[in-house]
Amino acid sequence: MADTPVAHRGWAVILGASSGFGEACALELARHGFDIAGVHLDRRSTLPNVERIKGEIEGHGREALFFNMNAADADNRKKVVAALTERDATVRVLLHSLAFGTLKPYISEKPEEALTQSNMDMTLDVMAHSLVYWVQDLWFAGFFKGWGRIYAMTSAGSSKVWPFYGAVSAAKAALESHIRQLAVEMGRSGVTANAIMAGVTDTPALRKIPGNEALIEAATRANPGGRLTTPEDIARIVAMMSVPESGWLNGNVLGVDGGEILVS
Q: How far is CA 228 from the centre of its chain?
């Protein structure tokens, strides 16, 4: 049986829309009536999955506008803004779910194996600072009209030390700081900003972290729910909060982990 059509709610801009949290949120928000502007960076081998996602979004009666590009590049942001301007878009949701950073130790026996300044700068720019630039561009283009919701995906790694995770940990800490600043500066506009701290989730990004198997095993064993967090868990919460009535929830780091942080 086909889904019952739902009212159009505006656009959701998803950064990192082709896998993990971004993919799940794009599909769930489309199901709840949002058109989706998805930004992703994929090789030719993974583009069929992008086409599948677009097809599912369109199957919900929503527009799927996808861009295969580096989301941290200023000229690329302009292209997305131009496309949304052509559609006279109202942006209700911006989700920052970019997971592209360097996993190296700060200190190593061989200097060539240690984190470099360019590694650190790139990781912080993509995984933290780009959020601010996207919000600025969407704001100055006039896309936030009446109310809006900004979400950024953080992790417990913002305050914990994991092997090789130093630069990403710094990026997550900076991302949470950016969310707090945006929450205060935009509070009177009806646009809120919150970070979402997911529990350990088996995503392509997690699989790139050295020692991910141990993280998965420990989280599965410890989580009160007896399982890992899933991207769909996050997507349901994002969709639930993406309504005008959630406007007093602002400037938080929201744990969506089934209670994992309490016992890990």
A: 18
Residue 244 CA neighbour count, 13 Å, CB half: 7
**Which stretch of 82-86, 200-204, 220-224, 245-249 has the lowest confidence by average pLDDT?**
200-204
**From CA 163, how far away is CA 211, in angstroms rounded?**
8
Which helix (H) or strand (E) segment holds residue 214: the answer is: helix 212-222
SS3 category, 41: coil
- Side by side, the strands of the sheet bearing 91-96 are 64-68, 34-40, 10-15, 91-96, 148-154, 191-198, 253-256
Q: What is the pLDDT of residues 112-135, one digit of tens each?
A: 999 999 999 999 999 999 999 999
Is residue 161 within 8 Å of 106, Cβ to Cβ? no
* Angstrom distance (rounded) from CA 3 to CA 31: 8
Look at the alpha carbons of 49, 65, 77, 140 in this order and tell me if their dihedral is positive or negative.
negative
Per-residue pLDDT tens digits for 224-263: 999 999 999 999 999 999 999 999 999 999 999 999 999 9
Does some domain include residue 262?
A: no
- The percent of residues in the chain predicted with pLDDT above 90, rounded, is 86
Please give the Cα distance from 256 to 253 (Å, whole number): 9
Our count of domains for the chain comes to: 1
Q: What is the extent of the structural domain holding 28?
A: 10-257
Give how far the C-alpha of residue 206 lies from the chain's centroid of Cα atoms, to the nearest Å.
Answer: 14
Query: Does residue 164 fall inside a structural domain?
Result: yes
Question: Cα(149)–Cα(129) distance, rounded to whole angstroms?
Answer: 18
